């Protein structure tokens, strides 16, 4: 069974608890539209992952079968621990390149596009990470880590990172210098000058200390979350496409091959000029105006979508690919519509009617 199925109720419950605690403390940690936007991007990322994992994992398994120098024993605890540490090292470089190479930032920038920092931000994940992130783990195949071990340590590494996306947990002393914690990951999500390109670790922050990218959270400067070129949208498709379109535009206007290559493989700031020094006091958060009735409707629709989406995760490998393809397409259309409604976009109402018509037709055919 897909382990994300078990994680979803834990995610939703913990988000509810965090929002409730923040509300009681009088802190503005959540915005409904931002949180639903983040969850929608998470859903789109999972749908994309369902259809692409077979290919990326297949490549890993192929490299393992052909070129593994040895085969790590699945029954050894030490092998599992070493695999987790090595995976975390590969994650560090995968993540770091995701920030420092423009093409790869195209996939990763979505995770940083929220201007809030809470547990829902953790689920704001890329739908295009499959294009390149698998490359960084191929050394583990050659080192002899079996595909099943890779998948499980990868899941542990990913799930670990969930709890650090919160403003409600303060500093944790020496732990902040060894593990990735809420304090040092807050820095990673900041757009203040001192936060840029820092604290890339997944579980261990010692990699940042080793490779010179570690910085401690400052008490004298509040962190402003988000990216320098704001997304200003809840649309999960646009959130995935924004930086790629910037690269494409810059590629077209660049003179000569050298400049064109810099737009793709250089620093992301080649595409989005950096307004340094950053002025935290001048920052204004993106806040789409949504009528309360529309916000309520979108929330109810999201509550309906969650079990339907979980149904897709459950049934994906039990039905023909074309059927799960149509199911995935409908779920993707749904997250687009819900985000569009929260942004008051006129097309969203028509698409909303269309997606329920499509659902009705599908049910009529199936029953
Ligand atoms: Zn990042
Ligand atoms: Zn994060």
Structural summary, described in words:
The mean pLDDT is 94. With 367 residues, the protein is mainly α. The chain has helices at residues 4-24, 32-67, 77-100, 102-108, 119-122, 138-143, 147-160, 182-188, 206-211, 236-253, 256-265, 292-315, 321-342, 346-366. It has 2 domains: 4-211, no CATH class; 292-366, no CATH class. The protein starts with a helix and ends with a helix. It is globular. One zinc ion (ZN) binds at residues 95, 99, 108, 111-112, 188. The site of one zinc ion has 4 residues, from loops.
Pick out its properties.
single chain; mainly alpha; binds zinc ion
Number of strands: 0
Largest beta-sheet details = none
H/E element order: HHHHHHHHHHHHHH
> Which residues form runs of ≥5 with pLDDT under 50?
none
Estimate the mean pLDDT confidence: 94
Summarize the structure.
The chain is an all-alpha fold and 367 residues long. It has helices spanning 4-24, 32-67, 77-100, 102-108, 119-122, 138-143, 147-160, 182-188, 206-211, 236-253, 256-265, 292-315, 321-342, 346-366. One zinc ion binds next to loops.
């Amino acid at each position: 069974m897909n382990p994300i199925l078990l994680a979803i109720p834990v995610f939703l419950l913990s988000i509810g608890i965090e929002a409730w605690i923040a509300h009681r403390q009088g802190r503005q940690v959540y915005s409904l539209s931002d949180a639903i936007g983040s969850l929608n991007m998470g859903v789109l990322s999972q749908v994309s992952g369902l259809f692409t994992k077979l290919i990326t994992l297949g490549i890993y398994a192929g490299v393992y079968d052909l070129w593994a120098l040895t085969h790590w024993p699945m029954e050894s605890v030490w092998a599992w621990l070493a695999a987790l540490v090595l995976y975390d090292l590969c994650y560090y470089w995968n993540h770091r390149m995701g920030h420092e190479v423009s093409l790869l930032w195209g996939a990763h920038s979505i995770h940083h596009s929220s201007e809030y920092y809470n547990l829902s931000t953790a689920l704001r994940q890329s739908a295009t990470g499959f294009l390149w992130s698998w490359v960084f783990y191929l050394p583990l195949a050659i080192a002899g880590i079996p595909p099943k071990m890779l998948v499980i340590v990868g899941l542990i590494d990913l799930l670990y990172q969930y709890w650090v996306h919160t403003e409600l947990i303060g500093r944790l002393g020496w732990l902040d210098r060894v593990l990735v914690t809420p304090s040092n990951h807050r820095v990673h999500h900041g757009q203040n000058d001192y936060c840029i390109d820092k604290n890339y670790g997944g579980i261990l922050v010692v990699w940042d200390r080793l490779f010179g990218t570690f910085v401690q959270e400052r008490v004298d400067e509040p962190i402003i979350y988000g990216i320098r070129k704001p997304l200003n949208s809840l649309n999960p498709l646009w959130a995935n496409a924004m930086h790629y379109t910037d690269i494409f535009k810059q590629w077209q206007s660049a003179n000569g091959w050298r400049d064109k290559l810099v737009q793709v493989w250089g620093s992301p700031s080649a595409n989005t000029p950096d307004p340094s020094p950053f002025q935290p006091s001048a920052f204004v958060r993106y806040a789409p105006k949504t009528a309360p009735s529309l916000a309520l409707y979108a929330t109810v629709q999201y509550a309906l979508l969650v079990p339907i989406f979980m149904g897709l995760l459950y049934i994906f490998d039990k039905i023909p690919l074309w059927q799960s393809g149509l199911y995935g397409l409908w779920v993707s259309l749904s997250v687009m519509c819900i985000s569009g409604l929260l942004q008051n976009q006129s097309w969203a109402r028509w698409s909303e009617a269309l997606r329920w018509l499509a659902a009705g037709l599908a049910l009529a055919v199936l029953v």
